[in-house]
């Protein structure tokens, strides 16, 4: 009887634990918008660059001499590979951007899709 009770208790405990799932979708995929296979300059990339990059990378005193305040300059950085290179660097790398912390996987994917499409001003 004790053995039967132990087996039932064990199965009930395993069943209740294995059904739990605590991942946070915002942490996994970023917040706002959708993460799909399309990305445009005006809807996705320009707002992201404005929010995350232009504060340091604009005008004559642009950090690292990189001005990202126009489509042409962001396009050039995207097409020569430096934009994705910097945003995909690991924590602790002094060249990792933005310095406030990595972009969400979804935002990196949006930049990658836009870049692969020619980084058009659409």
Question: Which features characterize this protein?
Answer:
6 helices, globular, 122 residues, mainly alpha
> Rg, please?
22 Å
The overall pLDDT average reads 81
Question: The biggest beta sheet, please?
Answer: none
Which percent range fits the helix content?
A: 40-55%
* Backbone shape: globular
Roughly what fraction of the amino acids lie in strands? Answer: under 5%
By helix and strand content, what is the structural category? mainly alpha
Structural description of this entry:
This protein is mainly alpha-helical. It has a domain at about 40-120. It has 6 helices and no strands. The chain has helices spanning about 1-20, 25-30, 40-50, 70-80, 80-85, 105-115. The chain is globular, with a radius of gyration of 22 Å. The protein starts with a helix and ends in a 6-residue tail after the last helix. Mean pLDDT is about 80; it is low at about 15-30.
